[in-house]
Amino acid sequence: xxxxxxxxVLLLSTLPLLADEHASSITPNEALExxxxxxxxxxxxxxxxxxxxxxRRIEISKKQHPFAVIVGCSDSRVPPETVFDEGLGDLFVxxxxxxxxxxxEKASIEYAVIHLGTRLVVVMGHQRCGxxxxxxxxxxxxxxxxxxxxxxEPAVEKARTQKGNFLDNAVRQNIRDAVTQLKADKPVLAxxxxxxxxxxxGAYYNLDTGTVTFLDAPKDH
Length: 221
Description:
Blueprint: H1 2-21, H2 28-43, H3 54-59, E1 68-73, H4 80-83, E2 91-96, H5 103-115, E3 120-126, H6 130-136, H7 145-159, H8 166-183, H9 189-194, E4 199-205, E5 212-214
Helix pairs in contact: 6-7, 7-8
């Protein structure tokens, strides 16, 4: 037991060093601006489909340096690379129904920030999210869907007291709750956020317009 604790302390002490060693040259604010610009192109039917050819595939076949992590919903209408007009190797994408974050999703995010040097994490929900709506309707589906809805339920309960569209408020609250959860998650993300090495923000995708609205932003944005 004592040896395990020593190893854990040693591992935690190296995390900031690993993040520095592999740190991306792009700052969180620059990454955010790039996402905003790409979404603007997409929403205005001016997508360039960058870095999607054979040359790019070969270029990144041995190593990847994504400039942002996108924690998004599995909804087929919200593919992050398309929404932000990015190409192969640009985004590290983690997708679950309702953009929920369990320990498994957190592990993927940790991998990106520690080993790939990614400094911006975006939790992106979307208009008329089916998982959030199912939670509101208290759907009784078989299997593990109940576990998913249970995770979203706290956001739904908070949204009940908010003015405006219930579903839309619940979607936005679910995004904010995930951001808050990630920012406070120890031992990795909370420390990297506190030291300014990583920024975690929320985003809302409008299915009707194709636009992304950021609910939070890095301090210098």
